[in-house]
Specification:
The protein contains 16 helices and no strands. By secondary structure, it is mostly helical. It starts with a helix and ends in an 8-residue tail after the last helix.
Length: 310
Amino acid sequence: MKKQNNKLKKAYIAAVVAVPVVVAIIALILILPKHTTVANARTLMADKKYYDAINMLEQLCEQNKTFYKGRVALLDAYMAIGSYDKADDVLASLKNKELSKKDAEIYDTHLSFLNNYYFTISNISNIWDSSDFDGTRQAIKDMLNESRYMQSVIYWYLCGTSETAQESIENLEICIEKDPRMLSAYLALGNLYRTVGDIESARNVYKAALDVDATDCGGLYGLGVLELLTGDPSVALTKIQAVHDMYGNVNYIPEALALALIENDQGEQADQFIAACKETEYTFSQAFTNCSLGLSSLEDYYMSQANTEE
C-alpha cells in the first residue's frame, strides 16, 4: 500500500509540473505566428516595401486586438512613409497600454513628433483666411521664426498660398528637405514639375519617392504617366496596370489605365474597363472624357494646372 501511495504521489507531482509546461507550450504555439508576422513585416519595411508590410500588419492587428507589438510595428510603418493621420489613429489605440520598454520608446518618439505636427497645423488653421492669401502667406512665413513649429508643415502650407508654380516648387522642395518621409509632397512636386514641362525633374522626384517607399502609389503612378507622355506606350501600360493591380480604382489611376489602353490601340478593352469602373461608382473627370474622345491631347490632360493634385 505504501509503494502504491508513493507511485500516486510521484504521478501527482509529475502532473502538477507538467501542466504549466503544457500551458507554456500552447501559449508559445499561439503567439509565435504573431511575432513571425511582425518580423516578416519589418523585413519588408527594411526593403522599403511598405504596401505589403502595412497590409500584413493591418490584418494582424484586426485579428488580434490586444497584440500591441503588431500595432507598434504598424505605427512605425505609417510614420516611415509620412502617413501621419493613420499613424495618429494607431497611436491613439496604444494609449495607456502596457508596452515593452523598447515599444514604449518608439511610442514616445512618434507621440512627440505627431504632437508638434498637429500643433503646427492647428496654429496654421487658426490664421488661415482664404479671402486674404497675402496676409495668410505672411502670417505663415512669420511662423518660420519660431522653433516650436514644424517647418516641413509650414512649407507645405506655404505651397498652398504660392502665387506661381515656381514658388510652389521651391516650397515643396524645402518641405521634402525638412521631412523626407512626406510622400504627399513628392507627388505634388513631381506633378508640378510635369505641369511646367520639366519631365526629367519630375522623373527624379518620383524616383526619390520610391527610394522612401518602393511601393509608393504616387511614385509608381507618376513614372507610368511620364512613360505615357514621352516614352513607349506599351511600357506605360505595363507600369500603370501594375499600379492599378496594387491600388485599384483610387484617384486618377483608372483614368491613366484607360488612356494607356487607348494609346496601345486597345479601345475596346478601354471601353470595357471604363464601364466596369462606372459600375463601382467611380467618376471620371471631364478632362479625361475629352482626352479619351480625342477632343484634347495627353499633354493637355497631364500638363495642365488642373491635374497637379493627383
